[in-house]
Amino acid sequence: MCGILGLFGRSPVGERLVEGLLTLQHRGQDSAGILTSDTTTHLKKGNGAVAQVFNEKNLARLTGNIGIGHVRYPTSGPGSDEDAQPFYVNAPFGIAIVDNGNVTNYPDLRRELVDKDHRQLTSYSDAEPILNVLAEELGRTNLARFGPESVFRAVKATFRKVKGALSVVALIQDKGLLAFRDPLGIKPLVFARQGRDFGFASESVAFDRLGFRRFRDVAPGEAIFVGMDRRVHARQIARPRHRPCIFEYVYFARPDSVMDGIEVYEARLRLGRRLGEEVVRHGVKPDLVAPVPDTARAAATELAATIGVRLREGLIKNRYIPRTFIMPRPSDRTRTVRQKLNPVRSQIKGRDVLLVDDSIVRGTTSRQIVKMVRDAGARRVFLAITAPPLRYPCVYGIDMMTRGEFIAKRYSVDKIRKLVDADALVYQTYDGLVEAVRGNMKDRRFCTACFTGEYPTGVTRRDLAALERERRRCIA
Ligand code: SF4
Question: How large is the average pLDDT for residues 101-128?
Answer without folding.
Answer: 86
